[in-house]
Amino acid sequence: MQVQTYSRLGSFGRAAAAGAPSPPPAPQAAAASLQKGGGGGGSGRRTPAKGGSSARGSSSGSAAAAWTGVGCGCAARRAARAVLAALHRRQAVFLFAPLLYVSAMLLYMGSIPLDVVPRIIARPASGSVYRSPQLYARLRADMDADNSTDALATLWRYKGGLWRPCINNATNSFPESNGYIYIEANGGLNQQRTSICNAVAIAGFLNATLVIPNFHFHSIWRDPSKFSDIYDEDHFVKRLQNDVRVVEKVPDFIMERFGHNLSNVFNFKIKAWSPIQYYKDAVLPKLIEERLIRISPFANRLSLDAPPAVQRLRCLANFEALKFSNPIATLSEILVTRMKEKSMASNGKYIAVHLRFEEDMVAFSCCVYDGGDEERKEMNAAREIGWRGKFTKRGRVIRPGIIRMNGKCPLTPLEVGLMLHGMGFSNNTAIFLASGKIYRAEKNMVPLLEMFPLLETKETLASTEELAPFKNFSSRMAAIDYSICVHSDAFVTTQGGNFPHFLMGHRRYLYGGHSRTIKPDKRRLAILFDNPRIGWKSLKRHLLNMRAHSDAKGVEMKRPNESIYTFPCPNCMCRLNRTEHSKPNRTR
Predict the structure, then answer these.
(1) Which residue has the higher pLDDT, 188 or 420?
(2) Among 103, 119, 368, 544, fewest CB within 10 Å belongs to which?
(3) Strand 163-165 vs strand 573-575: parallel, antiparallel, or unpaired?
(4) Taking the model in full, what pTM does it have?
């Protein structure tokens, strides 16, 4: 008797009408049906039960009736069954589902015009775009109405006077010199100053005689000045006479060994920030052997940290031995007097701002401002002239937005004005601006002068005849700026560099260990000036907090890996006791 077989799709009887395939009967039920059908168990062959064919016919008829009632033909029914069978038997077909979906989407998108598809526009990161002109235009009316505070009178919570200079004079006699050291100081005014002071420290440490340093001519600064053009050479030699031997030139009997040609002298190529022990181990033996050595270049060739005896010589050279030459010092005193006269409304007090917005500085920063294509062409040309190929190397990627967000972009005159006005300085504040030639000054200086009409520079304070001897010498002009800034009531630095670092240290040394300095958080400024929704009151609150943070630092001590020229306490200065502190002293 033939046994009824079951399709994997189930029968299309009542179960199919119910929407689910019929499962095969349980093994016990199948065995019972075999027994009822009289099948012999010995042969193992299944035979259909009685009436089996009529049952199949009845089932097929009911299924056909069900499909016919839905309105589908036999062809549709067979197609549906074939598809369902294929899906169950070969499930790998589902791997093609994503491909079918993508194809359908492409067909759909191809039927829609591109101008109908919405565009996704990403806004630049906060602080990455120069939008200060728009901010100034929007807030100017509120700024003009808010001119009631006087930061010169209310700014300072901390005062100097707790420390005093204490560089002890040496009294020991000199042993015989180990030889002569000749160095070439490269860079601008204050980078050269670093080289001079470090050379004094090394010469004293090695018991050598220092030849007056030679200034290397640089393609950027283009200043052929000699040591005596900028510094008082006689004072320099005399102030160091008990500590370091200094001579104007190498004696002839030494130069004879080298054919009177310095290029024949052994030149040490020393790594930057080398420890003082390296000079003892590597330089001293060669010095004793040759009697004359040359070190070029010499900028930053000595580590910031050194033994106390070496640091003392650095202090002595920087704060005591280096005085500007008589022509520079004389004109500087005249201009300081004029500056105080122009600030009589604030009792002779003025603030000094160091602004680094010269063309070479803007070009080197790779920042983008509001000059468009013309600015881009000018900056590319300036970079190629000053640093040929440095910024166009293959693989180098310049990201102006990231540079601005990191606070590395020079502040524009407009941004300096916004910052100072927000910090509480009124338009009656006298300002001395220390700077080179401002990039596009005829445009960029206008908003700063609108906010602070009592702004002066060395060019406005001095006559053309007075400046003529210094006009074409960048280091001498920088020395005049430096001298006027030293005597200001407060100093504002807008960009890193040697000028503000030396100046802050010099002011600390002169004014009891604490100089009134504003050093803004330029990362924070970039975000504030790029905020299209900020109001004047909110901006001013942020800037007042920034000003208070600068003042709260008080007297700052030198920490490891910091410059003694910026932080003279405690290596160059001593703390006053209560008796000394009660005496009158000049503070800043």
Answers:
(1) 420
(2) 119
(3) antiparallel
(4) 0.77
